[in-house]
Amino acid sequence: MLRTATDIHLVASALGDCLVSAPGEAPGLLIPGALAEGRDGRAKLKGVLRHRAAAVGHAVPAQDAAASIRSASRLLDLTSPHDGPDAGVVFVDDHLSALLLLQDESLAHTLIARRLRPLAGLTPERCERLEATLLAWLGGMGAPEVAKALSIHPQTVRYRMRQLEKLFGARLRDPRARFEIEMALRSRQLMAGAHRRRAAVGRRSRAATRLRRPVPRL
C-alpha cells in the first residue's frame, strides 16, 4: 500500500510481476510473496520505493489478499503519514505485535483504563517514569538491567518498584494481570507515537499552507 498514487505505474514496471490498484481505490500493488519475505525482495522494494511512504503486507494465499491489504493499510496509517526523504518501506511482518495490539483502539483504551488505573492521578512526569520502569521490569529485566536501559541508578529502580508494588499490589504477582498490564503499557506507547506522527504531519501541512498564501500587494 502506498501513501500516494504518483507514478504508480512506473513503480509497477520497475517491480515487474505485480497488479496495480484500480483508479479511485487506495493506491497499492499486489506483488509476489517472495518480495515481502526474501532479503533480495525486500532490498528491491526499498530501492524502488525510496522516499515513498509504503507498507508491505504479509504473504498470504491469493484468496486472502484482502486481509494483507487491511494490515498494510493500518501499518501505513500508524507509521508513514507522508512521502519524503524520511519516508520508506515498512513491513507488516516486522510489526505484528503492534498491529495486534492496535487493531481495535477502543478495546485498547478500555484495557489501558482498566489495567493502568493505579497510575491515574499521578503527575504526567511521575507517571512516565513509573511506566518506563514497569515496562522494563515486566520485560524480565532485573534492577541492574532496568537501570542500564533507562540510564538511572539501580537504587532508583528499586525505589520506583516499591512505589509500583504499593500502587498495583497483588496484581504484579498475578501472571494474567502482569500480561495485560504490559499490553496496556505497550498499547499506550504505540498510540502516543502514532499521535505524535499525526500531529507533526498536521504542523507541516499548516506551515506549507501558510507558505503558499499569496503576499498581499501594497
How would the blueprint of this fold be written?
Elements: H1 8-15, E1 19-20, E2 29-30, H2 33-37, H3 39-48, E3 54-56, H4 65-79, E4 89-91, H5 96-101, H6 105-115, H7 124-138, H8 143-150, H9 154-168, H10 175-212
Helix pairs in contact: 6-10, 7-8, 7-9, 7-10, 8-9
Short description:
It comes from Streptomyces inhibens. By secondary structure, the protein is mostly helical.
Describe the 3D structure:
This protein has 218 residues and is mainly alpha-helical. The chain has two domains: 8-95, no CATH class; 105-212, Orthogonal Bundle (Arc Repressor Mutant, subunit A), CATH 1.10.10. The protein has ten helices and four strands. The protein has helices spanning 8-15, 33-37, 39-48, 65-79, 96-101, 105-115, 124-138, 143-150, 154-168, 175-212, and strands spanning 19-20, 29-30, 54-56, 89-91. It has a two-stranded antiparallel ribbon. A two-stranded parallel sheet has the order 3-4. Helix 7 packs across helix 9, helix 7 crosses helix 10 (175-212) and helix 8 (143-150) crosses helix 9. The longest helix has 38 residues, at 175-212. The radius of gyration is 22 Å and the shape is elongated. InterPro entries: CdaR-like_regulators (IPR051448), PucR_C-HTH_dom (IPR025736), PucR_C-HTH_sf (IPR042070).
